[in-house]
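A further point concerns the way the authors explain their paired sequence and structure data. Each protein is reduced to its one-letter sequence and a matching series of backbone shape codes. An entry of this sort, consisting of the sequence and the corresponding backbone structure tokens, reads as follows:
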Amino acid sequence: MADLPKLGEDEIALYDRQIRLWGLEAQTNIRSARVLLINIGSIGTEITKNIVLSGIGHFSILDNNHVVTEEDLGSQFLLSKEDVGKCRIDAVKERIMDLNPRVELTFEMDSFESLVSQKCDKYDIVIATELNRDQTIQLNDWTRSNNIPLYTAGSNGLFGYIFIDLIKFEAKDKKLQSIKPSELGVVSTNKEIVHLDVTKDPEDEKRIYENIVTMNKYIPFNELLSTACLEGKLTRRQLKRVSSILPLTLAHLKDTDLIDTDVSQYKDQVNKMCEQLRIDPALILKPEYIEQFITQHHVEYAPVAAILGGAVAQDVINILGKRQQPLNNFIIFDGITLDMPIFEF
């Protein structure tokens, strides 16, 4: 991250509430960060609002000639009826600037391909929405080659997902020691505690705190689609309770055109994904979920966008502030049950 001057008294007063929540050092880290958002659609709008209001140092938006339609008005709160027919980035520019005048903003009306054709070291995080499989793979290859963490998110009616690739991320955490103390070593497939020490509360020696450093490893998007498997990661009871949305979403991400071109072939892809995940389609796949997932394709709901955008923005703020363990590495949202489970692949 680029070095910026320390927060002034006016900024400390402005961000007082969140400084109380995550501390002055975290706020200073956020103030020094540079984030790129690709596509300012429904989820992108929610991400933008949350990150800009957090006091990010620099926020860039790349959106290529997307034109505002009447359908966009129901899911993107920065738009109004007068914006229909305008380029989306032009329609939202001034309203985003009004959210927080202290944030340095840049708006680029350019193609996605122009971004991934060049080396880059000016972003600390890239966030992308509204990309198909091939574009996501291409972007993920680019972020990895430039050692930039990546978040992608998308929705499908009442359902949605978040994919995260921080490549490698060292997280520091302090927590009250439980009955079973933490130990050095492997925690899960992608997590390992690499440093651990304890401190006592000076006012109460019975309260012991653990200072933990965890190394989080991530896999790229393409690898997730081809190797995602739940065998050995969930109990038999948990496997029976996996949401239909997981195989439906992964199958859709594996071939984003099938729902539009061949529903029958898409359903076959869903069954193959269940086989890859090692879950029983007869137990997991509910007909009403399959029907809704297919019929709601291309539909965007503002509440779903708000939940997904809020989750992405919060995790971005956490890792920029270096305050908490990051999400790792695939999240689905079920708008029917309101469940939002995290799967570590």
